[in-house]
Design goal:
- With 324 residues, the protein is an alpha/beta fold.
- The protein has 12 helices and 14 strands.
- It has 2 domains: 181 residues, 3-Layer(aba) Sandwich (Rossmann fold); 128 residues, Rossmann fold (3-Layer(aba) Sandwich).
- The longest helix is centred in the N-terminal third of the chain and has 15 residues.
């Protein structure tokens, strides 16, 4: 069945809640309104107000309550309306959810999923478009999942719900309804921590994830016309990162470009560059390049298209590593 990312996530939530009565959803406006982007549309009518809970506008309370529910035998799926609002719940995310297994020597686990849309491209107000995933890459105890397609979103969310530990499930705003593809109707899972090789190539490896996957595909279409063979890796999960797949690819191509929308300094690209420097130094034909957002707050909507990675910037980066 052809689905958007919104439809794929909604379908997964319905199927998971039908299969497991311990699953409940909570968040701002997720019930009567079906969520700001209608991802949870229809859940309240289907499962009732005890399993689909509209909360106050209080992110720390949402995640704090979800952590408590998770330690008492339930499987909460909490929604933070936009990832830029998650600062209010950082203590609950990093100080509580991520640490309880370690703190209790695995006596207590936190089977919690926190859903949050992120990223630019929709002309949203301040704090609504931030890509803050690197904050949680640096927070041991959390898994961070960032799908780029409807089929990945459905399968990875199913795996996140089943996981015994907390998972931050980040959904790309720009791609919510802009891409459709055939998605398996039956319930299925995709492994967390396994990247996807979107396209095989010989000359350059591009590692990316989330909304930038679409940008990279468009850039690679232009590069193919120039005779450049590019291997595209979609991480799908940034905690853990599938380093084995990246290392194998770079050992083959000898060139690496990392593309992500978040700010450059201290981002996922920096971590990947360090790992490749440690493991593939003698295979490299050129320096590693990063195409990212800039080290500024996310800008006003009139210039956000220039702030985010563009097809032209990706093409230029690949051309530069090929020159080397």
């Amino acid at each position: 069945m052809e689905m958007t990312i919104v439809q794929a996530i909604n379908t997964c939530l319905i199927q998971a809640m039908e299969n497991d009565e311990t699953i409940l959803c909570l968040g701002e406006d997720i019930g009567k309104n079906g969520g700001v982007f209608r991802v949870t549309d229809g859940l309240l009518d289907r499962f009732g107000e005890k399993r689909v809970v509209d909360t106050p506008i209080a992110e720390s309370a949402i995640i704090g309550a979800a952590v408590g529910l998770a330690t008492r035998g339930l499987k909460p799926i909490a929604e933070i309306q936009f990832l830029g609002f998650i600062y209010e719940a950082m203590d609950q995310m990093v100080g509580q959810a991520a640490r309880l297994r370690s703190r209790t020597e695995s006596t207590v686990t936190v089977p919690l999923v926190v859903r949050a849309p992120y990223g630019g491209g929709i002309h949203a107000p301040e704090l609504h478009s931030d890509s803050l995933e690197a904050l949680f890459l640096h927070s041991p105890g959390l898994k961070v999942v960032m799908p780029s397609t409807p089929s990945d979103a459905k399968g990875l969310l199913a795996a996140a719900i089943k996981d015994p530990d907390p998972v931050l499930f980040l959904e790309p705003l720009k791609l919510y309804r802009t891409i459709k593809e055939e998605v398996q109707e039956e319930y299925y899972e995709l492994p967390i921590g396994k990247a996807a090789i979107v396209q095989e190539g010989e000359h350059v490896t591009i590692v990316t994830y989330g909304p930038c996957v679409v940008t990279v595909k468009q850039a690679v279409a232009q590069l193919q016309e120039q005779g450049v063979s590019v291997e595209i890796i979609d991480l799908r999960t940034i905690a853990p990162i599938d380093y084995e797949t990246i290392i194998q690819s770079v050992d083959k191509t000898g060139r690496l470009v990392v593309v992500h929308e978040a700010a450059k300094t201290g981002g996922v690209g920096a971590e990947i560059a360090a790992i490749i420097a440690e493991n593939c130094m003698y295979a490299m034909h050129a320096p590693i390049l990063r195409v990212t957002g800039y080290d500024t707050p996310f800008p006003v909507s009139s210039i956000e298209a220039e702030w985010m990675p563009t097809v032209a910037r990706v093409v230029s980066a690949v051309q530069n590593v090929m020159k080397e």
